[in-house]
Amino acid sequence: MHVPKVLEIKRIETENPTVKTFIFDWDGGEVHPGQFLMVWNFQDEKPMSISFADPVAGEIGVSIKNVGKITNQLHSLKEGDKIGLRGPYGRPFQMAGSKILAVGGGIGMAPVFAFTTEAIRRGLDLEVICAAVTEEELLYVEKLEEMEVKVHTATDDGSCGFCGFPTVLADKLLQDDDFDMLVSCGPEPMMKALFEIAENHNISSQFSLERWMKCAVGICGQCCVDDMGWRVCAEGPVFWGHELRLITEFGSYRRDSSGTRHKL
Ligand SMILES: Cc1cc2nc3c(=O)[nH]c(=O)nc-3n(C[C@H](O)[C@H](O)[C@H](O)COP(=O)(O)OP(=O)(O)OC[C@H]3O[C@@H](n4cnc5c(N)ncnc54)[C@H](O)[C@@H]3O)c2cc1C
Ligand code: FES
């Protein structure tokens, strides 16, 4: 069950200058938005959120940002090359709420895109904030617009859409309209601020957390969070807002591969 499947890369879609989506034929059973795969380059493994799943075509995809050693090697691969995948793992987003605001920051848009695609398939009412530092780093905007999703863009430098942090835009949208659920993935300081905004507006919220993962199946304890000891790979990566209140390290620090704390 936890042995990687070695699969051919069926298609590669370039999303922006640093992010590529790798698509595979998939007969590994059901996958749900918010779940992740362990991607193995035959040397090491990294967790990657499922960004794309088409149960009809039998395809699955992960969107990978080129930030370091493994992701750089993965970006050098071509269609037809092979990759190891194990999973899917983790607790997904719950499809709940009648009007949803989904907020993705940077590569955090990957699980938000999978969530949005599934929510649209189910006929849920939602709007999406796509946020990035600059316009060229925005992810999936055209794909979302093709699906007729109402998209708000926010860029830190004002090169596209709202100029400033997506938290300010989210607060405004929640004031102006009647949303009852907020869903998000992105940098943790952004999620921490969104969590507080959702609390102030008294609406439910779900957030996808990132922690260093080794086993991804709840055995090694590498991804445990203070104070509860919940394993992000098993009890998460998606947590409800009311659960985040109990994760005392949320928005303040995380651990590296040796367990050493680093301030966010
Ligand atoms: C549940 C989950 C889902 C993720 N989904 C995606 C995704 O959809 N797309 C994507 O591009 N990335 C995703 N990541 C991050 C990804 O797993 C890697 O951490 C990241 O791509 C760095 O890989 P690297 O080896 O190339 O970089 P490195 O050279 O190892 O390091 C680059 C930076 O990433 C940090 N880092 C490295 N490994 C980890 C790790 N396992 N956990 C946390 N931080 C780490 C390092 O401290 C450093 O700051 C996800 C992480 C988690 C936990
Ligand atoms: S990565 Fe091993 S318990 Fe989560």
Structural description of this entry:
The chain is α/β, with parallel strands linked by helices. 20% of the residues lie in helices and 35% in strands. It has helices at residues 69-75, 109-121, 141-146, 166-176, 188-200, 241-244, and strands spanning 5-8, 11-16, 19-25, 36-40, 45-54, 59-65, 82-89, 99-105, 125-132, 150-155, 162-163, 181-185, 204-208, 224-225, 230-231, 238-240, 253-255, 261-263. Bound molecules: flavin-adenine dinucleotide (FAD) and FE2/S2 (inorganic) cluster (FES). Flavin-adenine dinucleotide (FAD) binds next to strand 5, strand 6 and helix 1.
Give descriptors for this structure.
single chain, binds FE2/S2 (inorganic) cluster, 7-stranded mixed β-sheet, 264 residues, 7-stranded antiparallel β-sheet, 20% helix, alpha/beta, 18 strands, binds flavin-adenine dinucleotide, globular, 6 helices, 35% strand
